[in-house]
Design goal:
single chain, 186 residues, 7 helices
């Protein structure tokens, strides 16, 4: 386990070490939760336009994916594993590039940003079922997730764990969505 943590730390320091003032600004806004409200609104409009009678259920389930991934990331991971964020790790704290001295909560495994982004992207891709849209959504989730490493608040393993959590949450909620559709909206 120590070996994996060393690799994770080294990979984090490498990725976090690639920065510039231009990208500092970009990554700050990529990571900011309200930046992506237009994306969520576009998905909402799409769901209403394309899904018609299923729109309300689709929107409820999309929100449920995010809530599920977010709450599990905190309750079952961060509060159980108690793994310090890189910016709270005293061993490497002075080596980390952060922006506006922002670090977030004390613990970082798993990344809630990654869980939420991958959860939403996966669920929306399963609903929309258009290859190009799916690629864009996954690239967006990767960008949001990478921004967390860039900002110095998550290790790559935090991101990977969050991504798997989000994807799993999306598949679970999509299965429930499919069951509810068959049962109530024949």
């Amino acid at each position: 386990m120590e070996f994996l943590e060393q690799i994770d730390r080294a990979f984090f320091l490498f990725l976090n070490g690639i920065h510039s003032p231009f990208w500092d600004t970009i990554m700050f806004w990529v990571s900011y939760k309200f930046t992506w409200v237009p994306l969520y609104l576009a998905a909402l409009i799409y769901f209403v336009y394309k899904q018609k009678t299923k729109a309300i259920l689709t929107i409820i389930m999309a929100v449920a994916v995010i809530v599920l991934a977010d709450q599990i990331s905190v309750s079952l991971f961060k509060n159980v594993f108690l793994r310090y964020r890189p910016c709270h790790n005293l061993d490497i704290q002075n080596l980390i590039h952060t922006i506006h001295e922002h670090c977030g909560g004390q613990y970082g495994f798993v990344s809630s940003h990654a869980a939420n982004a991958f959860g939403f992207a996966t669920f929306a891709a399963l609903i929309i079922q258009k290859r190009n849209v799916s690629y864009i959504l996954i690239l967006w989730a990767i960008l949001v997730s990478y921004s967390r490493i860039y900002l110095g608040v998550h290790y790559p393993a935090d991101i990977l764990g969050g991504a798997f959590l989000g994807i799993g949450s999306a598949f679970i909620m999509h299965l429930l969505y499919s069951i509810l559709l068959k049962r109530f909206l024949k």
